[in-house]
Amino acid sequence: MAKNRRDRNSWGGFSEKTYEWSSEEEEPVKKAGPVQVLIVKDDHSFELDETALNRILLSEAVRDKEVVAVSVAGAFRKGKSFLMDFMLRYMYNQESVDW
């Protein structure tokens, strides 16, 4: 049986079966992934992409939930990916004592 986050199906479960369904009223379920909400400009300043942020925060699945934005910045090879991966592992294993 799969125990890793990457082995989960599209609904977050560990089932080996996948089901394809959709209706005309509903948008197709998209694979989860990062959405860039800050744009880095040539002068090294940042601009908020309000359209992208609204698309996330006003979606039906997220609208009534608490949301936390995490930003990690820093120099080359200083642990940014490690920190983000660590937070994701914690989030996916909150029920487990030995995460």
Automatic annotation (TrEMBL):
The keyword ATP-binding does not apply. Residues 1-26 are annotated as: Disordered. GO terms for molecular function: GTP binding; GTPase activity. This is Atlastin GTPase 1. The keyword Nuclease does not apply. The gene is ATL1. Residues 64-99 form the GB1/RHD3-type G domain. Belongs to the TRAFAC class dynamin-like GTPase superfamily. GB1/RHD3 GTPase family. Keywords: GTP-binding, Nucleotide-binding.
